[in-house]
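Hi support team,

I'm filing this because I wasn't sure whether my run with 2-phosphoglycolic acid finished correctly. The job status page said complete, but I'd like someone to confirm that the output block is well-formed before I use it downstream. Pasting the exact inputs I used:
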Amino acid sequence: MAARRPLIAGNWKMFKGPGETGSFCRALRDADLGDVDVVVCPPYVSLAEAVQALAGTDIAVAAQNVHWAADGAFTGEIAASMLRELGVYGAIVGHSERRQFFGETDETVAKRIAAAEAAGLHVIACVGETEAEREAGETEAVLRRQVEAILPVADGEGLVLAYEPVWAIGTGKTATPEIAQEAHAFIRSLLDVPILYGGSVKPDNAAVLMGQPDVDGALVGGASLDVESFAAICQAASHS
Ligand code: PGA
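And here is everything the job wrote out:
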């Protein structure tokens, strides 16, 4: 398939308040990131700082979630229009930590994606099987269910998927390039948009993962928290 410009997104999870975000982003501005699209996804309270510190660069800022309603009585939630007002470019939706620990379902993922797209936000929608599901031979069934839930709201342009096998997230157990490629090809057969790989991506495994034909970039957790390792992953993707 035609080579797509790789996209490397850093999912900071619940790390870095505004102060640390400012210094990280200023260092990132000066780093050599190669020829890739770069997105950082700080916690909500650090988004404004990131947008400001990265103004005038090509590095985009995205949130880690977004609510489906325009506004309303939803304590603790953030609307897409509020993110737009901050100058945020997009949002991650359906991360497995949201699915596992905060009751996110295929249905709420679809609602969030639809609202984000309607507001003009780009979306990184996450899918992936658990270890038990993989061992039970259910990987394709799970991916099919998760991707099919997204299909009705997949608006093309601004939508990116991330394949993140749950067993590889934060565990140091990266999917082999073959496992990643197989899952990405399967996902692409259901929905042909850029597909990032996520799950223990590090500077030393990024190149081989990014070298797979259906891997279009990475969603990086732990290794995105350090400018040097994040830049090294961007460089690896740039050369793959
Ligand atoms: P990890 O996280 O790189 O720390 O495994 C990836 C993710 O959860 O997006």
